[in-house]
Amino acid sequence: MSDFLAHCTPWPEAMAAEYRSKGYWRGQTFSALLDERVEQYGERLAVVSGQTRWSYRDLAAEADYLAKGFSALGIGPKDRVVVQLPNCAEFFAVIFALFRIGALPIFALPAHRKLEISYFCQHAEAVAYIIADQHGGFDYRNLASEVKAVSPSLQHVLVLGDAGPFTALHDLAAGPLPEPPKASDVAFFQLSGGSTGTPKLIPRTHDDYIYSLRGSAEICQLSPESVYLCVLPAGHNFALSSPGSLGVFYAGGTVVLSSNSSPDHVFPLIAAERVSISALVPPLVPIWLDAAASLQADLSSLKVVQVGGARFNSEMAARLVRELDCTLQQVFGMAEGLVNYTRYNDSDALVLHTQGRPISPDDEICVVDDEDQPLPIGEVGHLLTRGPYTIHGYYRAAEHNARSFTADGFYRTGDLVRQTAEGYLVVEGRAKDQINRGGEKISAEEVEHLLLAHQGVADVAIVAMPDAFLGEKSCAFVIRRDASLRAVELNAYLRKLGIAAYKIPDRIEFIDAFPKTGVGKVSKKILRQMIEQQLLVLS
Ligand code: OOB
After folding, report:
1. Nearest to 427 by CA among 342, 537, 363, 494
2. Ligand 1 proximity of 226 Cβ (cutoff 6 Å)
3. Whether ipTM exceeds 0.85
């Protein structure tokens, strides 16, 4: 194993000492947290998924079985494990098992394919990859075979369901458990939305993440009575911790999981389980609202709907409040750390028109100009942040870290924001080279690199284009080498390489030359204006 810790940047000792002395970091691990909840709420319902209903005691027993099983396979402290499971109860048994033995999950999205998964395995030298046999019409065992062939570190593929040539999660021997990890250790890796050629891994510690859960659970007033519906991918930071499933476990409540976010599926679930809170990305909101009006569903238990992950327009926000008769909470967060919430007793103006304020009084917010100079309150600038649950560096990314963090440890979010007099943030735009496709983030550079490798492509630039439903979609401007090259060919090429479907450009425009900026760089601003104009003419 390479020197793992050398690749993660810890908080400076003085800041860590301050966060401990202020009681933010309390020295508790996830495993200890689950044990504590079993003691307090053993028989209460922790997880509901399909026919599965686990109490806190059941969840801990499942995690214990898997922890011993993983140990028997030789998976141990600091080993990286790529976890790619759909929303199901076993997701939590798996991650608590990994937390118990100090192994480090990497939370892949169900949509990731060969290129992404093999990159995670190679970059983090993962020893195991955990999947479901099939989900959403896709066979993850075939994907695992492809990934295994190119990932020398990968020793185990563990499968929920029918294992095929691999090892079944339900069929593990029991090995001795290692010493538990320390709370200051890295607990897992989140994935960065990314704006570079390769995705970045975000190391989060037990201490920092549990602090963000506790803060989130307090802000969201969670209690053992809370019932959270998890419809976004369970491993994504929003659904996991804002307050997400882990915040609900923190409070002793119940998590109801669904891989399907469509109203026909979730509305009966909301009624049957008396769901009190859920988290959505903006494109789901009109779908739920339209269906709520026509389906006559009983949504009376639903007290709070959180919306975040992408820009949410204030007309739709007002419609949500009016039509669902519940509290709207806007959430502006990032897997790197900082999460902002509007509060339940905030004025309509704040809830409808801002993206909230940070969890912690010690979240430092700086809004700066292009030269890193602080701007007066109310002006739009780059958001920099530092605090008790925001990382100081990506995993194994020294060069990128030098650009993504200031010398004094502030994370450059890439978001353009303004701060209101009350200290609330309004997201005005983005400086990073990313497309936010209804909450799914696409790094332009990552997909550009792949397209450039196609022999028919001379040059390419990918930009966001407006979309009424998703907010943004992606448009690739391509300079061809060969005039016979067609868009369908490029899409098929990307699909064959094996990337998540949401990264495949929604539109490809062939162009003879790129517009340039004053200093001779490709002007993505002009490209965005060009496609916007073109869409206007077409509509
Ligand atoms: C969440 O996390 P990520 O890591 O997938 O994406 C973070 C980025 C932010 O930097 C920002 O560009 C965008 O997503 N974003 C929003 C937003 N919430 C996130 N842009 C506008 N309005 C919002 N409300 O997306 C995430 C993590 C935790 C909680 C919520 C969202």
Report:
1. 342
2. no
3. yes
